[in-house]
Amino acid sequence: MLELADVRKSYRVGPVDIPIVKGVSLVLHEGEIVSIMGASGSGKTTLMNLIGLLDRPTSGEVRYDGADAAGASADRLADIRNHAVGFVFQQFFLLPRLTARENVELPLTYRGVGEAERRRRASAALAKVGMAKREHHRPQALSGGERQRVAIARAIVGEPRLILADEPTGALDTKTGAEVMALFQTLNRESGTALVIVTHDPQVAAQCPRRVVMSDGVLVQDSGVFDHKPADAAAHP
Question: For residues 2 and 53, is the Cβ–Cβ distance under 8 A?
Answer without folding.
Answer: no
